[in-house]
Amino acid sequence: MSLLRTRARLKILGLLVPTALAFFLGGCVNGVGPTTPSSAAPPRAITVVGEGQIREAPDLARTTLGVEATAPSAVAATRDAAARMAAVIAAVKRLGVADVDIQTSAFSIRSERYNLPPAKPGAAPGTTPLTYVASNSVAVTIRDMKRTGAILDAAVSAGANEVWGVSFAHSDEAALRRRARELAVADARARAEGLARAAGVELGEVISIDEVGLQPFGRAMGQGSVGLRAADPTPIETGEVTITDRIQIVFALLPAA
Fold first, then answer.
1. What φ, ψ does residue 97 adopt, rounded to 5°?
2. Between the CA of residue 145 and those of 70, 155, 203, what are the distances in Å?
3. Structure confidence by residue, pLDDT tens digits, 49-70
4. What does each C-alpha distance from 27 to 17, 20, 21, 24 come to in angstroms?
5. Measured at the alpha carbon of residue 58, what is the angle toward residues 241 and 177, in degrees to the nearest 5?
6. CATH second-level architecture of 42-57+172-257?
7. Which residues, including other chains, have CB under 8 Å from residue 214's CB and lie 6 or more apart?
8. What homologous superfamily does CATH list for 60-112+130-169?
9. Where in the chain is the domain with CATH 3.30.110.170?
């Protein structure tokens, strides 16, 4: 029985192999080859990047005010810096800066000792006495732009010996971003329509929209330490806040009618 089953299987296999081989060779002769999934033709489309830009006068100023005190001990330096910073905060508050617009941004204590050149040839180099430096700084938001210069002057007069930059912003930046985005979309469509006319085709539906990048920036004063006399006015130029948005849109293309 086993021998009969084996002979039957071999007979069936002998019939199938020539058939499959003939099918394969016939396909090759006809230039068809093995069947593979066909990839769809890429859609006719155009990709453009539109840009929208909004310029507005800022209504916020931001700065960082700092004090630095040096003393023979860390405790003394810390107390001196704390007293100076309390005076600075009180000064800016008197000019209308609210509590919520003052935030401590940094506090540090470090020790310092410097090498001194030898007093005479052949002598060992000396060192300065060990001292401690305490630094304290606060970030301040100024909402009354007309008082920006006066607030800086008051802070310096009260004991601030570091002013780390002045930057400008707009309180409703979200609204400016929306306007810039709308202008960018309109600019992208206008670019696409112009290219389509030049190519003799018609613009179809939107295939995809991507935000390429949003770039807000404003004019700012240089960063660094300043030392001003109370009688010296501090001129402040606010410039403009500029927000730029870029939108990439892919449009389908239709044959010209």
1. -75, 125
2. 34, 16, 48
3. 999 999 999 999 999 999 999 9
4. 16, 11, 10, 5
5. 50
6. 2-Layer Sandwich (3.30)
7. 177, 180, 243, 244, 245, 246
8. Protein of unknown function (DUF541), domain 2 (3.30.70.2970)
9. 42-57+172-257
Which residue has 């002769």 as its token pair?
29
Instruction: Report the sign of the C-alpha dihedral through residues 141, 147, 153, 159, in that order.
Output: negative
Other C-beta atoms closer than 10 Å to the C-beta of 45 total 13
Per-residue pLDDT tens digits for 111-142: 998 877 877 787 777 778 899 999 999 999 99
Q: Which amino acid is at 7?
A: R
Contact 202, 196 (CB under 8 A): yes
User: What is the rounded distance in angstroms from the CA atom of residue 170 to the CA atom of residue 122?
Assistant: 64
Which part of the chain has CATH 3.30.70.2970?
A: 60-112+130-169
Q: Position of tokens 């709308």?
A: 182
